[in-house]
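Propose amino acids for all 486 sites.
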């Protein structure tokens, strides 16, 4: 409604001379439209000097305040100027016409105020009565909410996955619009060849209400029946024909292992037999934690392995780590044939999420002398000053005679040679003792020597023996430990 025009007038008394004391003020308050604060909308406060000097500029203020709980608009303040008042300026600027000043203050929120300042001078002695009025508009407004919900679905999944591994997927539906979305339904029909871990071909989730800015996240885990490219689409719908969809693609991969093994067709017993093992990953995924295992067959013993291969029980094992697609790894294992006949060396390769592969290589082991060297002390420990007898036994465990078998003994400083007896004569030279060679030692036969030494000092003493023959590439070394005590 339009505010009533109730005038608020201020009477200013004009003096004939300059005031020497502090200037006093006077003021009035008026309430519009009823004149009573409890039933009014606008309060107008007017403050001015109580006394001013003739023809001297002075200022006074008007403050308009919205004391209601509603906003008002088109607020207009009008100040009617008295005939004895000469207007100079106003802040903010006013529209001046026909002896009136007018300010269009626009809208005032509840509790808001605006103040104007008027400057002028008294043109005659007496009193000045400037009167103010306020008008305004107050509308009856009813707010009606307008909403526009919108849903958006997003989906995440790994770009690649192994065939043997579960595949985690995340679906998130969000209300990105204004206002709530009702009966939000998320469906995901899995592509052919892919199911949930429980064997379902799809999932469905229903959310009755999804508030503005709210989101819901659903986690599912799936598995693939075979390798390949899988594109998965999730759909979200809601009341009001709202819909959204999102797709992800996962490449399901698998490492594929191959293995080959190469070795000699024939070797003599007791001679090294070297096998070369080559493994490859022909699949499209990394073969993680790849392991090569070579079984040491009966009739042979482990000799050595390349690339850090270790003997574990009866198997030689290489932990070769990850094998990238297209990568190849080659290792060697060397065995020694201990029995005449055929040995078949078998190697296999395994890795995470890959089928194992196996390769074999047969080798014929022919007869050859196999000389065993044994050294035993007949008593231990030995008191210093006493003697101890060491027995040296050479046994041909092979299938052919061993020839030119020669034994050399090396004593430590704590031991002193006393005597020797046995299959051949002995020659002592300081701490070295040489036994005459055995010309020939038939299969399964033995040659035995006894060496007597004296303990001359205490300690953990070693009795070292080296054996050579025509059939041995490098010396065979045996050491017997004896405790000499004081």
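Proposal:
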């Amino acid at each position: 409604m339009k505010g009533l025009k109730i005038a608020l007038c201020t009477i200013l008394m004009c003096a004939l001379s300059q005031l020497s004391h502090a200037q006093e003020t006077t003021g009035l308050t008026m309430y519009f439209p009823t004149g009573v604060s409890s039933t009014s909308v606008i309060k107008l406060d007017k403050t001015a000097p109580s006394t001013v000097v003739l023809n001297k500029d002075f200022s006074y203020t008007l403050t308009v305040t919205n004391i209601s709980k509603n906003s008002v608009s088109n607020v207009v303040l009008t100040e009617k100027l008295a005939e004895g008042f000469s207007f100079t300026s106003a802040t903010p600027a006013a529209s001046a016409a026909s002896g009136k000043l007018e300010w269009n203050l626009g809208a005032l929120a509840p509790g808001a105020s605006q103040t104007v300042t008027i400057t002028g001078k008294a043109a005659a002695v007496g009193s000045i009565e400037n009167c103010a009025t306020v008008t305004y508009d107050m509308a009856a407004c009813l707010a009606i909410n307008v909403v526009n919900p919108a849903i958006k679905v997003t989906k995440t999944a790994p770009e690649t996955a192994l065939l043997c591994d579960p595949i985690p997927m995340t679906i998130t539906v969000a209300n990105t619009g204004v206002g709530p979305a009702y009966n939000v339904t998320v469906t995901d029909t899995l592509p052919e060849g892919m199911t949930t871990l429980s064997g379902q071909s799809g999932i469905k989730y229903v959310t009755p209400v999804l508030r503005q800015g709210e989101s819901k996240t659903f986690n599912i885990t799936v598995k693939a029946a075979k390798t390949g490219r899988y594109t998965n689409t999730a759909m979200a719908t809601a009341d009001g024909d709202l819909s959204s969809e999102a797709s992800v693609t996962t490449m399901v991969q698998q490492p594929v292992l191959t293995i080959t093994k190469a070795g000699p067709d024939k070797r003599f017993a007791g001679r090294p037999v070297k096998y070369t093992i080559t493994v490859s990953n022909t699949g499209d995924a990394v073969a993680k934690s790849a392991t090569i295992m070579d079984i040491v067959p009966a009739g042979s013993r482990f000799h050595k392995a390349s690339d850090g291969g270790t003997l574990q029980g009866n198997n030689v094992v290489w932990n070769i780590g990850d094998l990238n697609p297209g990568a190849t790894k080659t290792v060697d294992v060397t065995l020694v044939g201990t029995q005449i006949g055929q040995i078949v060396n078998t190697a296999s390769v395994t890795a995470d999420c890959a089928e194992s592969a196996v390769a074999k290589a047969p080798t014929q082991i022919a007869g050859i002398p196999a000389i065993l060297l044994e050294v035993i002390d007949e008593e231990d420990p030995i008191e210093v000053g006493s003697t101890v007898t060491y027995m040296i036994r050479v046994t041909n465990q092979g299938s052919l005679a061993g020839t030119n078998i020669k034994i050399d003994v090396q004593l430590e400083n704590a031991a002193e040679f006393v005597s020797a007896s046995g299959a051949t004569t002995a020659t002592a030279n300081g701490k070295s003792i040489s036994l005459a060679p055995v010309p020939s030692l038939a299969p399964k036969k033995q040659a035995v020597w006894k060496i007597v030494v004296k303990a001359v000092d205490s300690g953990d003493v070693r009795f070292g023996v080296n054996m050579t023959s025509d059939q041995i590439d490098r010396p065979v070394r045996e050491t017997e430990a004896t405790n000499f005590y004081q």
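The chain has four domains: 8-137, 151-253, 257-366, 371-485. Residues 151-253 form a domain with the Immunoglobulin-like fold (CATH 2.60.40.10).
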